[in-house]
Amino acid sequence: MIYFAFIPIGSYEQHGPHLPPETDYLIAKKIVENVAPTFKGKIIEGIKIGISPEHKRFKNSKSISKKKFENQVNKLLKNFYEETRFFLINAHGGNNHALCSIQKLHEDKILVLNTFSIIKKDLMRIRTSRIGGICHAGEFETSIMMHLFPKRVKMNNLKRSDVKYIPYLDPNYKFEKPNRWKTKNLSKSGILGDPFHASKEKGEIWFKFLIEKIKSLIEVFINQYL
After folding, report:
1. Residue burial 21-46, b: 16+ Cβ < 10 Å; e: rest
2. Would you state the pLDDT for residue 180?
3. What pLDDT is attached to residue 177?
């Protein structure tokens, strides 16, 4: 018998003055809660602190090394039956490389689903900010949080001067992106994007897109390997 396990993976890092530091994990967990029942899967607590060296100069951020992160993921995987298939829902870009390396070693047992990668085309369909407005704590994440956790969003804490457009960090940027950068060098508030373009309505639409696409990709994985 084949078992399915769903693991939310996020980070603990500043998300400007208006979003909680655990934003990425909260989003990943909510996705898991909406997807796992369809496949009668078990929900694992997951990983709440990720690879976030770019945010370390902010006091409300935590980061672990790539090695420690990989060890935590592998430990979770080893605690289950050989017949288990894992779906890792990741909402933090800094974790992508490490997770993809793990997936390559177990392609028939692990499927990594990175939220920004999945929704790139859908971002373009309804976004209103120009390129650079959806990076970190900007239009997309703020909209999703408005939809999922409206009481955790403190828009009154924002100032127009907090907005920072960094085109090369935007998921819809079409050219080569730098490998290394520090948030503190780019933005005093920690925001990389434009949260003033966010809305609860956009968040609801984007979240539905995410759920639908993730379910579809899981179906493809199941048909291919099981």
Report:
1. bbbbbbbbbbbbebbbeeeebeebeb
2. 86
3. 86
Mean pLDDT along residues 169-195? 94
The residue type at 11: S
**What is the bridge-based pairing of β-strands 134-136 and 192-193?**
antiparallel
What is the CATH classification number for the domain harbouring 50? 3.40.50.10310
Alpha helices in the chain (DSSP H): 23-35, 66-78, 96-105, 115-118, 120-126, 139-148, 183-186, 200-225
CA dihedral 155, 159, 162, 166 (to 10 degrees): 80
125 is in which domain, residue-wise?
A: 3-225
Tell which residue, 154, 156, 164, has the closest CA to residue 188.
164
Q: Kindly list the distances between the CA atom of residue 141 and the CA atoms of 5, 57, 58, 199, 200, in Å, as whole numbers in the listed order.
A: 25, 21, 19, 10, 11
d(CA 121, CA 117): 9
> Cα–Cα distances in Å, from 1 out to 22, 81, 84, 110, 224?
35, 10, 9, 17, 17
Q: How far apart are CA 77 and CA 7, in angstroms?
A: 10
Number of domains in the chain: 1
Provide the 3-class DSSP secondary structure of residue 73: helix
CA–CA separation, 107 vs 43, rounded Å?
A: 20
